[in-house]
Specification:
Chloramphenicol Acetyltransferase, alpha+beta, extended
Length: about 400
């Protein structure tokens, strides 16, 4: 008895998926609930599992776009199909190996003769006088032997001609200044990201405000306590937890930054579900840290590590990427000095972190060198006024430059 394995429903708004990879090959045996393939939608990657043990018979191919409910493969009860017979050369008996070791060398290909390419004594003498190698002469005698007539008619190939023939045989794969191009089909995730980014640019009144943060206080704090922090909590102390905590405190003072527009209404949230932008192999994803406002630095760090690992392994679920109220993106890990991040709709604002560079700054009338980071807040001007956007970013700056405020809530 065989059963059909179909594309399962993976979300209300998802109507089709792409078969990105077969984990099991056609004809292989599979166990119950074993992963047999990976399906990719416009939001996430899903694993397709076997619904019974048996032999896999594939129906769809990698790269196929399949509607929900389409048959991907069938599984027949029983063991796997008999494996193909191995070629004799792959597995030899000891006796055959011994015979091969003691055998007299023969021609490399069946039908070749030892006489092929060998000159007769007279032909060999003539070729030696002409300075021509026997390998450069085609024999017309029995079994390809070079005859006296072949030797007399042989001409020495000029070096330039020989070089030209050699270059023809081994033509370069590409030349300098080549204009090659290749085409790749956009993945569902990439198509969705592209569509949403254009929609945001067209449908929001997006502006960006900038500021800079002196990272020395946080760097000093990390340097002093990072070993103890990791020993106690089992996770490193990074910058993301400080920024997330600072954002959550600032959102309390500026609730419009944590709101969204629905129709003709503004929806305010008394919680902070912070989305963290992660660059995954298949594109940008934004997993969400739920109720980040009630989490400690250690809890935030653990959540960031867990979600980032899932993103890089394409294991995020739709639930883990839905419902954020504010987004943080860190272009600094790629060396970005300054950028204008695009809002993650339907949210109203996004904070962009950048790289840390030592720059001269003025402190108490003196010029000092400090590790500085530019920060950017892109916001929807339809709901967030200039006063609120600038005030929010200044509040984040104050909290980061005096980390004690994050613990005291002042």
């Amino acid at each position: 008895m065989s059963i059909e394995i179909k594309v399962p429903p993976v979300g209300e708004s998802i109507t089709e998926v792409v078969l990105s990879r077969w984990v099991k090959a056609d004809g292989e045996s599979v166990e119950m609930d074993e992963v047999i393939a990976e399906l990719e939608s416009d939001k996430a990657t899903f694993e397709l599992t076997a619904e019974q043990a048996g032999t896999l018979k594939t129906v769809a191919a990698e790269g196929d776009t399949l509607p929900i409910g389409a048959v991907v493969c069938t599984i027949e009860e029983g063991g796997a199909a008999a494996p193909k017979e191995k070629e004799p050369a792959q597995e030899e008996k000891p006796a055959a190996i011994a015979d091969k070791a003691t055998a007299v060398p023969t021609a490399e290909k069946a039908g070749d003769s030892y006489a092929k390419g060998s000159p007769s004594p007279a032909a060999g003498k003539i070729l030696a006088e002409k300075g021509i190698e026997a390998t450069d002469v085609k024999g017309t005698g029995v079994d390809g032997r070079i005859t006296k007539a072949d030797a007399l008619g042989a001409q020495k190939t000029p070096p330039a001609a020989a070089k030209a023939e050699s270059s023809k045989a081994a033509a370069p794969a590409a030349v300098a200044g080549s204009r090659n191009e290749r085409r790749e089909k956009m993945s569902p995730l990439r198509k969705t990201v592209a569509k949403r980014l254009v929609t945001v640019k067209n449908e929001t009144a997006m502006l960006t405000t900038f500021n800079e943060v002196n990272m020395k206080p946080i760097m000093d704090l990390r340097g002093k306590y990072k070993d103890q922090f990791k020993e106690k909590h089992g996770v490193g102390l990074g910058f993301m937890s400080f920024f997330t905590k600072a954002v959550c405190e600032a959102l309390k003072d500026f609730p419009a930054v944590n709101a969204r527009i629905e129709g003709e209404e503004v929806v305010y949230n008394d919680f902070a579900d912070v989305s963290i932008a992660v660059s995954a192999p298949k594109g940008l994803v934004v997993p969400v840290i739920r109720n980040a406002e009630s989490m400690s630095l250690a809890q935030i760090e653990k959540a960031v590590v867990e979600l980032a690992t899932k993103a890089r392994d394409s294991k995020l679920t739709i639930e883990e990427m839905s419902g954020g109220t504010f987004t943080i993106t860190n272009g600094g890990v790629f060396g970005s000095m300054m950028s204008t991040p695009i809002i993650n709709a339907p949210q109203s604002a996004i904070l962009g972190m950048h790289n840390i560079v030592e720059r001269p700054v003025a402190e108490k009338g003196e010029v000092v060198i400090r590790p500085m980071m530019y920060v950017a807040l892109s916001y929807d001007h339809r709901i967030i006024d200039g006063r609120e956007s600038v005030g929010f970013l200044v509040r984040v700056k104050q909290l980061l430059e005096d980390p004690a405020r994050l613990l005291l809530g002042v």
